[in-house]
């Protein structure tokens, strides 16, 4: 190893999980917020990407590596953030659709940024063939499809198991997260399987996508993996045209996993109302998850068949995944476009 060998946990943190009176009132049950927006990179990606990068660096002679990531957003930020912590160089290739806001953030962290292609797959192909193939110390950092990324994300559930108990919540009845390529969802599912051995005590897991970035939902409906022809949602952080094979497999073998889709307008509503209720700014990909609390989807799926009193005793965790593709200006523009108050 090199002279600087940080402990792996410094690449991500144990995030707080707090009750929300405002969201609990909106949902009619006990809502807890798992604040992954507080991770070093601004999103949950720090967990999986940081863990994968650290493991890869340990496997290299001398620990000298050059990290390469193809991401239009949060995975790239997580890679650049972890690379800076590990004192290793980093190159991020992003599609042309990536905002200047995100590119500035990547460069501020010291990453070299290339813009290539109209979508992620083209950026990824360029990274692999033109850059990574010619670098003997290069390490590929996928945005979501790697077992070590899922392992890092699974620790979210490890923490939830003991974080809710001081609030008197002895059972976790539901976990809501979003799904882009499936890295977060795969980790949540691994965590549930590791921590909840009795089938009837496993929490319901809601995987949320937006219309136009709903590759998991399309695959569930078709009964096989589907590749979307294009990403048309404004929630570009969910913009994987095809989910990982492991994600689809989870949807087929785990009866407690439910795929949900919300509109872009609902995702904007989720971000706006969350900013008002929780005083935190999250991008619309995260707003999609939160929207299910406000629009009744959570009650419909997790609280199906329950009386109001029974539902009021249920405990649901919202994974506030965060994301850096947001500002007051961006959110105001979306509010105006979609007529969200």
Written overview of the protein:
The protein is of the alpha/beta class. The chain has helices at 21-27, 45-59, 74-86, 100-108, 120-131, 147-163, 183-195, 215-222, 245-253, 264-278, 284-294, 297-302, 308-312, 328-338; strands spanning 17-19, 30-35, 66-70, 90-94, 112-115, 138-141, 174-178, 204-210, 257-262, 315-320. α2 (45-59) packs across α6 (147-163) and α6 packs across α7 (183-195).
Rg is 19 Å
Q: What is the succession of H and E elements?
A: EHEHEHEHEHEHEHEHHEHHHHEH
Distance between the termini: 53 Å
Q: Count the E strands.
A: 10
Number of helices, where a helix is a run of at least 4 consecutive DSSP H or I residues: 14
Give me the side-by-side strand order of the main sheet.
1-2-10-7-8-9
Q: Structural class, from secondary structure content?
A: alpha/beta
User: Biggest sheet, in brief?
Assistant: 6 strands, mixed
Sum up the overall morphology in one term. globular
Summarize the amount of helix as a percent range: 40-55%
Strands, helices and their partners?
Layout: E1 17-19, H1 21-27, E2 30-35, H2 45-59, E3 66-70, H3 74-86, E4 90-94, H4 100-108, E5 112-115, H5 120-131, E6 138-141, H6 147-163, E7 174-178, H7 183-195, E8 204-210, H8 215-222, H9 245-253, E9 257-262, H10 264-278, H11 284-294, H12 297-302, H13 308-312, E10 315-320, H14 328-338
Helix pairs in contact: 2-3, 2-6, 6-7, 10-11, 10-14
